[in-house]
Write a structure and sequence with these properties.
With 127 residues, this protein is α+β, with helices and mostly antiparallel strands. The chain has helices spanning 48-54, 110-113, 117-122; strands spanning 2-4, 10-18, 30-38, 62-69, 74-75, 81-82, 88-92. The protein is 13% helix and 30% strand. InterPro entries: Ribosomal_uL14 (IPR000218), Ribosomal_uL14_bac-type (IPR005745), Ribosomal_uL14_CS (IPR019972), Ribosomal_uL14_sf (IPR036853). One of its GO terms (cellular component) is mitochondrial large ribosomal subunit.
Length: 127
C-alpha cells in the first residue's frame, strides 16, 4: 500500500506490478497501482459537481505511478542513508505526465537521476 501525494483524487493505492523490474520498487521506479481509497475534498460552493470534478481518479481505477518515497533504507552514492516514514507515489498517465497539478509533501532526490523533472518541479521540497 502506498500513499498518493498529489491532488489527483486518490488517497491510498495498492501496488500490483513494478514495471521492467524483477525486484521491489525503489524511488523513481514506475509501478502499476489500483486506487483503494479516494481523497475527500469536502463540501464546496458548487456542491457535488465540483467535488467529482476535482477527483480525476475513482476507487478501483488502474493507473501508472512513480514511487517518490520508500520506508526502506536507501544508501546514496555519497554515503548517506535515507529513510522516509512511509511509502508514497505520484499518479501519472501513460505518457509520463503527472495527473495532479500539486504535490502535498517532500519527494526523494533520486527522481532527478531518473529524469522525473516534472514531478520535482511540482514538489514543495526534495531531500
Amino acid at each position: 500500500m502506498v500513499n498518493v501525494i498529489d491532488n489527483s483524487g486518490a488517497a491510498v493505492a495498492e501496488c500490483v506490478k513494478v514495471l521492467k523490474m524483477k525486484r521491489h520498487a525503489r524511488i523513481g521506479d514506475r509501478i502499476i497501482v489500483v486506487v483503494q481509497k479516494q481523497r475527500n475534498f469536502g463540501p464546496e460552493s458548487g456542491g457535488a459537481v465540483s467535488v467529482s470534478a476535482a477527483n480525476k481518479v475513482r476507487r478501483g481505477d488502474i493507473r501508472h505511478a512513480v514511487v517518490v518515497r520508500t520506508a526502506k533504507k536507501y544508501q546514496r552514492k555519497d554515503g548517506s542513508v535515507v529513510k522516509f516514514d512511509d511509502n508514497a507515489c505520484v499518479l501519472i498517465n501513460k505518457g509520463g505526465e503527472p495527473i495532479g497539478s500539486r504535490m502535498g509533501s517532500v519527494v526523494g532526490r533520486e527522481l532527478r537521476d531518473k529524469r522525473w523533472s516534472k514531478i520535482l518541479s511540482l514538489a514543495p521540497m526534495h531531500l
